[in-house]
Batch of 2 targets.
Target 1
Amino acid sequence: MTATALSAGLAHAQEVGNAHDKSNAAPSGDVALLRKLEQMEQRIRVLESQLKQKDNQEIARARGQAPAPAVSPADVKPGKDRKDAEDPSKPKLAKDQKGTTGWAKPDWATPASRDLTGKTAPVNRPNSIIGLTDSPVTGMSIGAYGEMKFGLQQNPAAGGQWQNGFDAHRLVLLPTYLITPNIIFNAEIEFEHGGSGFDPDDKLHGTAEIEQIWIDFKMIDQFNWRAPGIDLIPIGYINEHHEPTAFYSVQRPELYNGLIPSTWKAPATSVYGRLADGLYYTLQASSSLEDFGGDFGTRTDANTVPTGGYAAGIDGANALGFALPVRGGFQQLSNDVAVAGQLSYSPPVLPGFNGSVSAYYTPNTTPRGAYAGDAGMPLGRSSLTMFDAEFRYRVPNTGFEARGEYVYVSFGNPANLRANNDSDPTNNVGKTMYGYSGELAYHLPLGNILSSDWEMVPFYRYTFQNTQPGGFAGTDLNMPTGAGQTQFHNVGVAVFPSPQIVLKATWQKVINRDPAGANSDSVLGGVGFFF
Amino acid sequence: MTSWVRLTLPAAVVASVSPAYAVQYLTIDAAQKLAFPSANRFVENGGLTWKAQAADRLLGLFVVDHVVGKHLYIDYAVSLDPTGRVMRVEILQYRESYGGEVREPGWLAQFVGKSSSSPLKVGSDIRNISGATLSSLHVAEGVKRILATYGSRTR
């Protein structure tokens, strides 16, 4: 810049010198030349002070101080004949700022100017509505989510009789605390079915539990550690994103009720991170699923199954619904540790598409002291492998959304599963279980009502689940009723007065191969929130 | 500029841009240089905004703000050109364990070119991020608020 200015100045001096030489005698040529030299010196001084000031700003910022005033040109005298400098009173604007029909340039869009006193000209500050600090928020924040359900349901235990009902299914509190900028505490405290209590007049038979509790150590983009706590198993999408605003039906998607146990959580520790654009991973070790579904209080002090018979945790009717590992009191019934992994991907080439693949493996689900029948032969080890692939695609610039999922479970040694050895011939488990679902939804904006933008999402979901495909083993007779093959049709609408609250209505039709029928249809409404 | 500044400045920009660790991705300084590489002055304009200038030529406005993700703040920066349109959005700090997908360059690129007349509505001109619904909604709302304050005005 200096060189350019010098050469420009020199060229200019030459021109002016020539002009003067033409009109005047020799002495004024020297005077003009001297004046030009002075102006060049002045220009160099201006440039030097700009550079110095920039350096000062950078040093001040590096030291964490407020930057030095933008201009400190106390030693700069604006020369009257300065041709290279711009007139400070006329802001230089990009051409497309002026003349655009109907639009004025923003208030701030004038360069910071310098007046003769050397201070920056005062700027009209627009009303500032943004935060005054850029330091992290400290302190605790508590969020919540919950869902309430009500309507008409067929009760299969009452021969399919239609019954009215209401369930305050969940209220979950979500305390979050930034312990340090890199260490975050998170928990979920859940009350189910209205809570739990002892007084008969309260009529409570629900749950109060710690659904999640963990501390994250955030290290680098690619690697972060979640310290041992209670965490969700990273299988599929809905297990981890199960707030009522994440799915459109009143009840959670069917594959996440039994095949993937409802809110599958376990004592666990994991590492997770971002591998590339849109590609995230999780690797987790957790306490294993257990093939014991009986009353908690019946497990012995020796941490074995009780004598005299016990209920299975894994069976052909409920899949893995009763196989959750224990999370308190050191009362796990085995030493087995499971591993799980998930890769989730939003390919940059396909905006609006999210998908994941995940897998879970435990070397053994059989609890200590497991046996057949009421006092029969001991049951040996049986491993379990689960695989899930799912996607969600919101077609950009349209209201269309599609979701699809496939889940597959494989049992290492079904002969050692309690359900195949409990004298019940109808609940047996084969070598595998599987299920799949497909869903179509459409997002319809409803406009601004009551100070927020409402949205309506009609949807249809089809689910098929096979929890008894055959390949039975074990001591039981095999007489499956056909209830193991089930189809679910869900039609309904979810209305979002804001993304944090949802009003739902769903009609569900359930069909299975049981000659008596599934008798589980329902028409339900729901209110859900998440903030 | 003297030659030593010319030689070291690109290296300084590169070094300051690479994220050090998960929480603080960019300092304000580094984000300013990313957004306005040819600027040599950032003039304070009040309330965490800076005018980016090259000497007396105005390059744009650099605004720092924060919004809530799920429960914790996300610090982010929006750069506007002199007509009040978005040039760039950067996430400076993301603290939570979930929803970090708002940092994906493909998602942030949607804001480029937006003006105060753009709807900036998640699900309409801004894609939602499955699994980061609240973070994406709040960042979009924040950019919209910044455009309402600092973007171009109707006459």
Target 2
Amino acid sequence: MNKVAGRPKYLKPNKFHYCAGCGHSIVHRLLMELTEELNIAERLIVVAPAGCAVLAYDYMDVDVVEAAHGRGPAIATGIKRSLPDSVVLNYQGDGDLAAIGTAESVHAAARGENFTTVFINNGIYGMTGGQMAPTTIEGMRATTAPEGRKPEREGYTLDLSSLLAQIPGVVYAERVTVNSPRTIRRAKKALETAIRCQLEGERGLALIEVLSMCPTNWKKTPLEACAWIDEVMSRKFPLGVLVDRRQKISKAGTGNAD
Amino acid sequence: MTKKEKVLLSGNHALGEAAIRAGCRFYFGYPITPQNDVPEYMAANLPKVGGTFIQAESEIASINMVLGASVTGARAMTSSSSPGISLKQEGISFLAGQELPAVIVNIMRGGPGLGNIDGCQGDYFQAVKGGGHGDYHTIVLAPSSVQELVDLTVLAFELADKYRNPVIILGDGQLGQMREPVILPEPVKNLPDKDWALRGARGRPSRFSRSLILNVRAMEEHNWKLQRKYREIEANEVRFEGYLLDDAEMVVLAFGTAARITKGAIKRVRKEGLKVGLFRPITLWPFPHKAVRELAGQTREFLVFELNAGQMVEDVRLSLEGRGEVFFYGRPGGVIPTPMDVATIIGSRYYQRIKRRAR
């Protein structure tokens, strides 16, 4: 009998601390599936962010270093420059990447650092309990935007990935989501494309933004949260390839054409 | 540059060359006066030995790039001056918490705020009392000549690796900018093996490096582990210099550039027959508490001179535990007094306290 499903080899047998319906556990699983499929476990170093994914080393059975809030791209730079043959995965949330770590995000992109950033965008500060994020959708409530985000009061929703995609140092950027089996498969393809940029000698930063559910802080059921991504969030943050500057790979058939 | 041959170098260039010879292959920094010649030197010379120089977007990014290179086991350094060092404190706390080696150079300038670009010692508290958040210590080395800056730079990398702890070299604008003949060290050949480094889990179980420990008992245990390490450093790594102490009836305590000025001052007052010596802490943390306390067996007259409004003087008082009279002379804000100025202060204090008593 062929085994068609199972726990990925590099996903530690620990129970996720993530809330029911959270996107992090899905993305962790995808990354560890790819670690096995691409045979990179022995040269992979993950940079975990301050935020809900800070405990990534509890789940990912590969070398992991924790970053101060927002500093992941700087740490990933130091690692990748020291070990050019390693595969460096820099995992960040929205507050991390697009608020406190904006400078690090922009300048790692400007330098064209050769690592992969996985950007979990759930439009809210999850770990600290639902405060407003730079990516909080206008009108959405947060504990620090109790009446709902109003641009004239709390400012506009920030789409940093689209700004980063303008920078020549970004070799590949795509926005995906993980709210259904179909979108999860697409997300896995995108993550593979981004990691392959490192494996195949592409020059520059590869960025995958994942629109991710946070039912707890969105005050929704997991199913409502999945639906909200389709109905609201992906309209503000449209899915798809933001930029593709890969030189070495034939682009046909490698993107998410479906 | 052959062995034992003296070369004329500025403090900042000597620091860069010494770091490269100590095996530093990663330098990350951001421009700030009066230490710009350090990143410039590293930009020109690190690539020649296969190293990496990055002018980072900020001080915060540069200290975290240091952390990234360090966690892979490489020798890495950053340098800055006072306001920039304030920005690096978050990263220094993380380095201490994650027990990662790093060398951080502070070529101090006048403050607070932007202050000025002259030599100053206003960052003593920041360097020796922690600096960033949390219960930690950095080893702090205070050179007072370009040659000593070279020697302590090599030592800084050794101590950082030995104790897996950030080491701060606390210089100032005067030291960074002045040129002196120095003997450079031979390049370090064998770097220590680091069995904790993250280089990919090849042929071993996976590892992680973290500072978040949510379990309070585990966090407490980690703190005690750090404290045991600090006690070990205090027991093994105290360094200081005594100058003309044997017959001294008054001891001047000073570090770095202030100590150098003091030496000149003491030479002058000695010519007039005043029995004054210098005690110069080289490690500001660990502070030479025991050696200072022992001086109280010889005299009760102490004078602390600093290029600030009085910071190390607190550690001197703590060391003496009331066993002596401590007089403080300080010049904050970037003023560098001459040996003559300091000789006048020493002389006047000496006549008030010792000659008067003798009469």
